[in-house]
Specification:
Shape: globular
Radius of gyration: 14 Å
Distance between the termini: 40 Å
Number of strands: 11
Helix content: under 10%
């Protein structure tokens, strides 16, 4: 089993920045990692993912403002969020995919990001 822990959420004013961090432990074969978010009353949605080789993919709504990166040696992934707007307020979840053959997924507990003046 893989244990996933997020950190870095908080309250920030519109236009501000936050950096989320996520670490995964328990497996030597962490594959893709990614960030998802869920706002109140809405379904969880993809924010950004990054393959083990570092190839990123973003939701259209965050392109140009959010940057995902990873440190594969540490099984860590980061999300730099700039130019934050109130509509991105949500709980942000980290997902780690792992497994030597069959692909499994583990989720963190989530970290709250609130953008408000």
């Amino acid at each position: 089993q893989v244990h996933v822990v997020e950190s870095g959420g908080g309250l920030v004013q519109p236009g501000g920045s936050l950096r989320l961090s996520c670490s995964a432990s328990g497996s030597p074969t962490i594959k893709a990692m990614g960030w998802y978010r869920q706002a109140p009353g809405k379904e969880r949605e993809l924010v950004a993912t990054i393959a083990r080789d570092g190839d990123p993919d973003y939701a259209d709504s965050v392109k140009g403002r959010f940057t995902i990166s990873r440190d594969s040696a540490k099984n860590a992934v980061y999300l730099q969020m700039n130019g934050l707007k109130p509509e991105v307020t949500a709980v942000y979840f980290c997902k780690a995919e792992w497994g030597a053959g069959t692909c499994f997924a583990s989720w963190g507990q989530g970290t709250q990001v609130t953008v408000s003046s």
